[in-house]
Amino acid sequence: MNIKKIREDFPILNQKFNNNELVYFDNAATTQKPQQVIDAVSDYYQKYNANVHRGLNFLSQKATDKYEEAHEKTAKFINAEGIKEIVFTKNASESLNLAAYSLGEKISSGDEILISVMEHHSNIVPWQMLAKRKKAKLNFVNITSDGRLDLDDFEKKLNKKTKIVALTKASNILGTINPLEKISKTVKDNGSYFVVDAAQSVPHTKTNVKKIDADLFAFSAHKMLGPTGIGVLYGKEEILKEMNPFLTGGDMISKVSLKEATWNKLPWKFEAGTPNIAGAIGFGEAIDYINKIGIENIEEHEKALLEFGLKKLKEIDKINLYGPEKEPRTGIISFNLKNVHPHDVAQILDENAIAIRSGNHCAQPLMEKLKVDGVARISFYLYNTKEEIEKFVNAIDQTKKVFGV
Ligand SMILES: Cc1ncc(COP(=O)(O)O)c(C=O)c1O
Fold first, then answer.
1. Catalytic site residue 362?
2. Which family does it belong to (predicted)?
3. What is the CA angle 237-242-247, rounded to 5?
């Protein structure tokens, strides 16, 4: 991988802030966009802006082709059967809300839903709402002391009442990669539906939805070089067929009378109203970009950064690191400096043009489990370098001096 050349594709990285080159370490929140993606979005607006699935004019035809092509590229990228299994939403959160709302119709009073304490709020709150609506019980798989999914606790809490299991493939704080391929058979043998939050895994590792054998599988384009406002819900065809739409309106309809309506074919049944056409086209371009570099190469590069980053951070005195000691884990490192609030750490780093994230990272139950109010987090992507990690470590030294740590 030629990182120098890759970085040239990202205009935002070639700017200076406070006379410093930008170090962007907040990729778990959102990633930067290459010029190719920016151009694809701009091309749509400049050259063939039109609505999709509506007009017979040539502009609408081209927009429709490109919009559907983005579904095809997504299907191929995660090894789905085809575009009927790929629903575009606005983000992973909407995908998980769709899952909880529509699959949730299968839940009755007394049923159980099983998630884990390491979930992002987007994979907690929709299930909480569903459990309240249906008078069902929401159970939580615990984590081990080294930040992994507690598989013994999982086996204990999975029972015949468990109708849905919804787990993250990778934690946005601990970096833990959960062995979902291993446990999906147990979930299926139990007769439960399996929903996966893949927001932090699809951008970083090769995905094969058939191997994970998930019924529904959610992720966001903006965390993988694509535009904001476009997300994906993959669903097995037979499951999506069984589910009712989440949102209703234009384009998701086959026939409407004054009394009732029937639904369009998959995936359009789940895409009500004018979609984010530019976002979808930009996402298609982002997938092309990742394919050109090679997702395996990206994964290997991030692994090297993670290893280097962990080694450097472990050498720092008075630092707490969170997450498993060893692989498998993704390119995320969360930490706290003793007696320094993570927001203060983020602020000093920001003065050095190093963008990180601090706070509870939309995972308050996990914060409670870790007994902290928040953590500082760095997260890598294909354009980051070891030199940037060295700059970051120097800035941490400076932060420690400022706060007398
Ligand atoms: C693990 C995880 N799930 C879900 C989400 C929600 O993604 P989005 O904000 O794109 O809906 C995030 C975002 O950070 C995440 O890290």
1. yes
2. Belongs to the class-V pyridoxal-phosphate-dependent aminotransferase family. Csd subfamily.
3. 95
